[in-house]
Every structure is written in C-alpha cells, then in structure tokens.
Specification:
The chain is an alpha+beta fold. It is built from five helices and four strands, in the order αβαβαββαα.
C-alpha cells in the first residue's frame, strides 16, 4: 500500500499543472486589459460615495483623474441620490461596482489605491485574488 507521501505527491502532480495554466491565462488576460486605453474597455464602474466621508472625498479626486483619462467611471453621491443606495444595496461607502452590459460582475466596498481602482476599471479584480 502506497505511503501517504506518495499519494500527496501524486495529487500535487495532478493539481499543479492546471493551476499554473489558469494563473498564466489570467496574467495574459490582465496584460491585454492593461494595454487597452480606458475608452476601449467593455465595463463601467459605479462609485457610490457620500461627501460626508473623508475617504470618499479623496476617492472622488482619483475617480476624476481616471474619468479624464477616458475610463468609464461614474460617481454617484448617495446623499443626493438616496434611491441609488437602495438600487445598488449599498451597505457602506465608498462602494465600487463593476458592470458589464448593465449587470454587476463584482463589487468592492473599500478605499482603493489609484492603481487598484484603475485595474478595477479595466475589469481586473485584484480584491478577489487577494481573498477580500
């Protein structure tokens, strides 16, 4: 009867190649998305925020920069538009929602660095990879 070490090694050999292939494919897809200008990307990002939130105010500035670069990013003040809070089930701010063809793909409720928000606008969800 094979030892546990042999069984674990065999399982490792079976699982590792597909995982490595998946990582490689994801990296290639992300590189292609990063090469495209913002206006050529398929998705749209909604940023739901409150001006009473100091972190949100800094995110609004980052969002304006990305909008100026051609990214499809729409800022929605939930204090001025309370129906948006209900429509998008906002629990906290800032909330970023990535939409493709009007359907939500994923969301993040957190402050983001400019680089992470830019990737988010490109359809790259780093937060999912990080386990958030």
């Amino acid at each position: 009867m094979p030892s546990d070490r042999i069984i674990k090694f065999a399982v490792f050999l079976l699982i590792t190649p597909p995982l490595l292939a998946m990582v490689w494919i994801t990296q290639q897809k992300n590189a292609e998305l990063r090469a495209k200008p913002g206006y050529q990307l398929p998705g749209q990002v909604l940023m739901l925020y409150s001006p009473r939130c100091s972190g949100c105010n800094s995110m609004v500035e980052v969002a304006k920069d990305l909008q100026a670069e051609g990214f499809s990013l729409k800022s929605i003040d939930i204090d001025d538009n309370p129906s948006a809070r209900a429509q998008y089930s906002v629990q906290g701010v800032p909330t970023f929602i990535y939409l493709v063809d009007g359907k939500e793909r994923y969301r993040v409720q957190s402050m983001l660095s400019r680089a992470v928000l830019e990737d988010f606008c490109r359809g790259i969800n780093r937060m999912a990879v990080a386990g958030f």
